[in-house]
Amino acid sequence: MTNTLGYSKYEWKNKNKNTDNSRNGHSKKTVRSQFGEIDLKIPRDTNSEFEPVIVKKHERTISSELEDMIVSLFAQGVSNRDIESQMKRIYGIEVSPEMVSRMTDKILPIAKEWQNRPLNELYPIIYLDGIVFNVNQGRSNSKENSLCRICNNHRR
What we know:
It holds the Pfam family Transposase_mut. Helix 2 crosses helix 4. The chain is 30% helix and 29% strand. The longest helix has 19 residues, at 97-115. The protein has helices spanning 2-5, 64-75, 80-91, 97-115; strands spanning 23-33, 36-45, 126-137, 140-151.
């Protein structure tokens, strides 16, 4: 909205505005996602010049990219409130913590199932490491690599 109007939310009293357009509240919109219905607040302006970027006008479904972003942030341990503030800061859209909870609640059973899956009794492990030595060979010095590989050979 700030880009459309040319001034920030808190400069509305500024006499030097170059436009007669101003903020005019918001409208509510319900969109469908793979995680269920989500309520959004879409900002409005008096001249109807504002075009939403993420969920366009007349769209009733939310992009899978946005859903993936929210789920990815949640998977990284970001709190619902922090996800809300990131969506506001990056995309300029307001998503409630409840909406984030509804989205993440849909994936929790899948995550729990993965966490509680049966594990194999044995996993092969390979350790790789290397070191560089400065080697003095008469009048010249060279760097020699020494690589190390350790395998557990499936031992218990």
